[in-house]
């Protein structure tokens, strides 16, 4: 499960974070393997800005599920800060921490400049070297991949007796190829609807080289999912995600998540032909249907990609819809997976 702590109209950021906590507990109880949180900045619709802080809370609020970042946007942070945050999380919750690393800013240029303090750091050219440094600071050295001199002289504290599981995240072939060449697990953001999922999966496998971390490729793909009692109800509840997708793709300010009623009114006002074309390409929620059909669609995605892990995410106005989706997918997934 991936969650962004979405903030709905009339809701406070604190309430959104409490909803994420409830969702993590539901995923824990339903048997999910991982619960990841995102890093986004200066977005009224998103409360998840500091994954390390939120993960400490979620790990303490759950019993067995792995918690992780989906992801930490590495160009925003000094490598030692990231390594020490996740070394501490691992010391507090050994064997339950994932460090998912991305290279996107997760913010607009002005916010990114404020995060990084200097304009020199706004590019992602140093990303591969910074990933290697984070691994070295956590005590994970890759043969033939020398970290910086500074990283060789330092180590993250608390001193590790175990290490977080490090994943590279991405929505392009760049991160896929980098993850493969470093021998790291890779999570592809299929829920972004870029159209390059199969190409990225192939690029990752072709670039893969065994490492002390992995003997063979390990691929995760994500999908945006919402489950309801009927297709019509699911499409209605997915309306807010369509409004959000429209705002993101047309450059409009991304405000808090509107209600399904307001979303339906806004979508009804669009030109029907233009809207149909847009949402065919950018559906918002990719899988919005009944639980049985959702299970079939997710199993088909796993079969097409050959993914080792599936991560679901979703945008909905209320947490009850998200919890219902988590529980219904879990209830049907094993039988669907075995049948596939």
Automatic annotation (TrEMBL):
Span of domain Luciferase-like: 8-330
Stated name of the protein: MsnO8 family LLM class oxidoreductase
Keywords, in A-Z order: Oxidoreductase
Lineage: Bacteria, Bacillati, Actinomycetota, Actinomycetes, Micrococcales
Species, as recorded: Cellulomonas humilata
GO MF entries: oxidoreductase activity, acting on paired donors, with incorporation or reduction of molecular oxygen
Pfam families associated with the record: Bac_luciferase
EC number(s) given by UniProt: 1.-.-.-
Enzyme class: oxidoreductase
Gene Ontology CC terms, in alphabetical order: cytosol
InterPro entries xrefs: Bact_Lucif_Oxidored (IPR050766), CmoO-like (IPR019949), Luciferase-like_dom (IPR011251), Luciferase-like_sf (IPR036661)
SUPFAM superfamilies associated with the record: Bacterial luciferase-like (SSF51679)
Span of the signal peptide: none
Domain of life: Bacteria
Family of the protein in this entry: To bacterial alkanal monooxygenase alpha and beta chains.
């Amino acid at each position: 499960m991936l969650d962004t702590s979405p903030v709905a109209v009339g809701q406070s950021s604190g309430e959104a974070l409490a909803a994420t906590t409830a969702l993590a507990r539901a995923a824990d109880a339903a048997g999910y393997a991982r619960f990841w949180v995102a890093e986004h900045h200066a977005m009224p619709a998103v409360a998840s800005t500091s994954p390390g802080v939120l993960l400490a809370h979620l790990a303490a609020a759950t019993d067995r599920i792995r918690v992780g970042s989906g992801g930490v946007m590495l160009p925003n942070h000094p490598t030692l800060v990231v390594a020490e945050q996740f070394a501490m999380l691992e010391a507090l919750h050994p064997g339950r921490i994932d460090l998912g690393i991305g290279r996107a800013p997760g913010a607009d240029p002005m916010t990114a400049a404020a995060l990084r303090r200097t304009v020199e750091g706004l590019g992602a050219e140093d990303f591969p070297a910074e990933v290697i440094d984070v691994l070295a600071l956590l005590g994970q050295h890759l043969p033939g991949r020398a970290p910086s001199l500074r990283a060789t002289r330092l180590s993250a504290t608390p001193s590790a007796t175990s290490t977080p599981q490090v994943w590279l995240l991405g929505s392009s072939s760049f991160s896929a190829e980098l993850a493969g060449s470093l021998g790291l697990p890779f999570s592809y953001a299929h829920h972004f609807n870029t159209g390059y999922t199969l190409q990225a999966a192939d690029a990752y496998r072709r670039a893969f080289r065994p490492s002390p971390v992995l003997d063979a490729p390990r691929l995760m793909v994500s999908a945006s999912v919402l489950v309801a009692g009927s297709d019509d109800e699911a499409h209605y509840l997915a309306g807010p995600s369509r409004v959000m997708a429209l705002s993101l793709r047309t450059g409009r300010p991304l405000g808090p998540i509107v209600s399904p009623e307001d979303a339906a009114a806004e979508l009804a006002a669009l030109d029907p032909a233009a809207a149909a074309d847009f949402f065919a390409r950018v559906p918002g929620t990719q899988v919005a249907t009944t639980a049985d059909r959702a299970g079939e669609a997710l199993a088909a995605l796993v079969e097409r990609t050959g993914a080792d892990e599936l991560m679901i995410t979703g945008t909905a106005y209320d947490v009850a819809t998200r919890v219902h989706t988590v529980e219904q997918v879990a209830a049907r997934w094993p039988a669907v997976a075995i049948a596939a």
